[in-house]
Design a protein that fits this description.
mainly alpha, 79% helix, 7 helices, Arp2/3 complex 21 kDa subunit ARPC3
């Protein structure tokens, strides 16, 4: 069931990323829907292979855009591994903290992809303007992620409360 949900969400995020991007854009900046999905999947899924799912989302993002095919998958695998390690050491359960982590993830991934595009000659902008736009994409996507994390926390709250009650027994 989880794989069907994953494929459906990746398809939906890919459609939002490619065909609906001009509707969501503020100037040249639009949210990274596939990145948002990867960030949500990384922060909500506590299983061992969550970075692999994020890498698959990065691969689908590479296939939806023009440019280097391996760059998105690689950076999402690396950032997914870092987030998986951080989840074990830091409490990343609050929606605001998750939105801040999403900002960091999307900004790092966008900066990486823009740097790869700039180094291969695919980006005609200067590197400094590309970095500013990458941070703008991170801010916009983090703002879009906050309601998603709030809804997920709202759905998970009863099970977390039950676990806390059972822990005190």
């Amino acid at each position: 069931m989880r794989i069907v949900l994953f494929i459906t969400l990746v398809y939906l995020a890919g459609v939002l990323e490619t065909t609906m991007a001009p509707l969501w854009a503020i100037g040249p900046i639009s949210p990274d829907w596939l990145g948002l999905l990867a960030s949500v999947w990384l922060l909500v899924d506590n299983r061992l292979f969550a970075p692999c799912w994020a890498g698959a989302i990065g691969l689908s993002g590479d296939l939806c855009s023009s440019g280097c095919v391996v760059a998105g998958m690689t950076i999402w695998l690396l950032t997914g591994a870092v987030v998986s390690r951080l989840k074990n050491k830091l409490p990343l359960d609050h929606p605001v903290v998750q939105a801040v982590v999403t900002f960091c993830l999307i900004s790092v991934v966008s900066i990486w992809l823009r740097a790869v595009g700039w180094s291969t000659g695919e980006m005609e902008l200067g590197l400094s303007l590309g970095l500013v736009r990458a941070v703008g994409v991170g801010v916009y996507t983090a703002g879009m992620s906050l309601p998603v994390f709030m809804i997920i926390a709202w759905f998970r709250e009863p099970s977390l409360r039950r676990a806390a009650v059972l822990e005190h027994l």
